[in-house]
């Protein structure tokens, strides 16, 4: 049986893997990835 706790544990492990791979990239590439993943909003007026 697949429980909610197992799903959360799997998601956590995937997140740790993503963080580890992101740490190995150059700061410029990491900043570019952050910019791309963030939703774009219009200027406040």
TrEMBL record:
Ranges for region Disordered: 19-45
Superkingdom per UniProt: Bacteria
Protein name: Uncharacterized protein
Organism per entry: Streptomyces mesophilus
């Amino acid at each position: 049986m697949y429980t909610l706790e197992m799903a959360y544990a799997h998601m956590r492990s995937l997140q740790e893997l993503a963080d580890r791979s992101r740490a190995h990239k150059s700061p410029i590439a990491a900043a570019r990835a952050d910019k791309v993943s963030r939703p774009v909003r219009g200027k406040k007026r």
